Amino acid sequence: MKMLLHELHPSVVHAPLALLPTATVADFIAVASGDRAWAKVGRRLWVAGTLSALFSGVAGLASSQEVRLEDPRARDMVFLHGMGNAVVTLGAVGVTLWRLNRPPSLTQSLIALLANSAALYTATLGGKMVYELGVGINPMPADARSGTLKGPPLLSREAPGALVRDALQGVRWLFRRARSIWEGSRPLHSGAKGFGRGYESPPMPDEALVPDSTEPRSDAPRM
C-alpha cells in the first residue's frame, strides 16, 4: 500500500509534539537545579523540536490542499489548526534562537509552557478533524463532504514538486481565509473551535459497524 502525500503530516507531527514539551521540561529542570548538563540537553531538544515542527508545518500546509473540505466547519477547523500551529512554530523558533547562546530562564520556560499548551489544543483540533469529521480519510463515501483528493504517492517523482506547490498554496489559503474573517465577509464557523456552541459531533449510525462485544449474543450458549 502506497503512502500518499497528504499522509506525511500525520506521520511526522508527533516528533515536535514530543520534543518541544520535553525541551521545556529540561529547561525547567535546568532552571531549578542550575545543572548545565540539563541546559545543554534542553538546547539540543529545542533545535530538534523546532526543525521537526518546521518540516511538519510544511507537510501540513501541503496536506491542507490535498484533502476535500466542503464542510464549512471542517474547513475552518483546518484553518484554526494551521494558524495555531504557525504561531506555535514561530514561538518555538524564537525560543530556539534565544536558547542557542543563553541558558534557560524561568520566564522563557513559562512562555514555552504556554506555547506547548496551545500546541495541545491545535493537536486536539487535528484529532477532531480526522476522527470526527473524516478530513483526510481515504476511502470515504462519494457523497461525503470531507475526505481526500488522493494526491500523488509520497515516494513518487511528482511528490516533491507537489509538496512545495501545495505548501505555498496552503500559505496563500491561510492568508486569504484570515483576511476574509478580518473583513467580516466570511465569519469563522461557530463550530470550528471544536467545542461550545455550534459544535456538534457527527451523529452515530443506527447500526454500529462493529457489534458491541459487551452485549450478550442471542446465539451464545447459556450456562
Give structural attributes.
single chain, 223 residues, mainly alpha, two-stranded antiparallel ribbon, 6 helices, globular, disordered C terminus, transmembrane, DUF2231 domain-containing protein, membrane
Structural class: mainly alpha
Task: Compute the number of helices.
Answer: 6
Tell me the radius of gyration.
Answer: 21 Å
Fraction of residues in H or I helices: 55-70%
Strand content: under 5%
Number of beta-strand segments: 2
Spatial arrangement of strands, main beta sheet = 1-2
Which stretches of 5+ consecutive residues score pLDDT under 50? 203-215, 217-223
Major sheet characteristics: 2 strands, antiparallel
Looking at the structure, what is the overall shape? globular
- Give the domain tally: 1
Order of helices and strands: HHHEHHEH
Give the averaged pLDDT, no decimals.
83
